[in-house]
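Sequence in, structure out.
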Amino acid sequence: MKFLLPLTAAAAVAGFSAPALGADVDLSKLPPAATAKGVTFDKDIKPIFEKSCVKCHGAEKQKGKYRLDTLEASLKAGESGDAILKGDSAKSPLVQSVARLAPDAAMPPDGKGDPLTPAQIGLIRAWIDQGAK
């Protein structure tokens, strides 16, 4: 069964222009959440963000007024709302963006870094599903 959601928040949080807004995403294409228990920001997620995200979403630069370099910053809303919906990774715009479900909202953008692996996305999903601690 396909579930389609608007990617408006993800596209806007990431600083995308109008063509990406309103695009539908197919949640069946998301990698599954990792089965690891006790996933934490500092131990598991921060290293992923440091490698792939903080160049554009860190202390020095905040595309879309969104930061991923600290737990507190990652849980704050960006320009267009929350990117992380605690307990619901599939509907979290951050997950939809890093899973590259809509080409115009893909994070990191083409040419700006390597896409996250399914295992990394699964770990981010587990972290969010477990309450983004």
